Amino acid sequence: MGDNEKNLDENNNESQDYIKEYGQPNEKNKNPRGNIYFLNIIGQIEGHIALPSHDKTTKYEHVIPQLFVVENDMDVDGVLIVLNTVGGDVEAGLALAEIISSLSKPTVSLVIGGGHSIGVPLAVASKYSFIAPSATMTIHPVRMNGTVVSSPQTYDYFNKMQDRVLDFIVRNCEIEKSRLSSLMLETSKLALDVGTILIGEEAVEEKLINEVGGLHDAIEKLYEFIENKRKFDKNKNI
């Protein structure tokens, strides 16, 4: 085996290991239209407590450093966030959403499969959002499992946490807070529970997501944002 073939094989193995660990390729898109960083958010959002090894998770301690690198990497022109998540740790998910929304790089999100629970703030954190026609989003109140001690204080804490989630969503999309609260507390949509499931176009009609579309649509929108940013930066430096 020649040196070039050996190096190529080592790079392929390294990229495969990176995909297994982080769920994304360890390489940048070599496209003159812009280098896109791909961020995959799947399964449960894992927070301060480690989930069982057989669960599919997105670990926030992995994603946060990646986002810091993206913000400071001059070779990254835009970020594509693809979501298929059932939700998970509220504070971890909200922390990731806050960082995504504060990135200076153009960002576009695409919900495929599902963007449930704390996945909703993550979906709307980008500059522009898409949802696949068959994808679903579940909006429901903050929940917890286990024994609740000091009920009045815990109830107050949960209300404040829920307001944080609502306020973030409203800040980052066009839905009204009153309408979002109504969807969250709907009793006729989910059996024996409160909340609402939105499918594809319904999420757009509720002004939660910008547009129905797929991977091509999301990438093209991101290239559009990258081109506009390049023009803005060029005019600013003239």
Helix and strand topology:
Blueprint: H1 3-22, E1 36-46, E2 57-59, H2 60-72, E3 78-88, H3 90-102, E4 107-115, H4 119-124, E5 128-131, E6 136-139, H5 151-172, H6 177-184, E7 196-199, H7 201-205, E8 211-212, H8 215-236
Parallel strand pairs: 1-2, 1-3, 3-4, 4-5, 5-8
Antiparallel strand pairs: 6-7
Helix pairs in contact: 2-3, 3-5
What oligomeric state is this?
single chain
As laid out across the biggest beta sheet, the strand order is 2-1-3-4-5-8
Q: What is the helix tally?
A: 8
| CATH topology title | 2-enoyl-CoA Hydratase, Chain A, domain 1
% residues in beta strands? 15-25%
What overall form do the CA principal axes indicate?
Answer: globular
CATH C-level class: Alpha Beta
Tally of structural domains: 1
CATH superfamily: 2-enoyl-CoA Hydratase, Chain A, domain 1
Spatial separation of the terminal alpha carbons: 52 Å
Write structural notes for this entry:
It is a single chain. This protein is of the alpha/beta class and 238 residues long. The protein has a single domain, classed as Alpha-Beta Complex (2-enoyl-CoA Hydratase, Chain A, domain 1). It is built from eight helices and eight strands, in the order H-E-E-H-E-H-E-H-E-E-H-H-E-H-E-H. The strands form two sheets. A six-stranded parallel sheet has the order 2-1-3-4-5-8, sandwiched between helices. Strands 6-7 form a two-stranded antiparallel ribbon. Helix 2 runs parallel beside helix 3 (90-102).
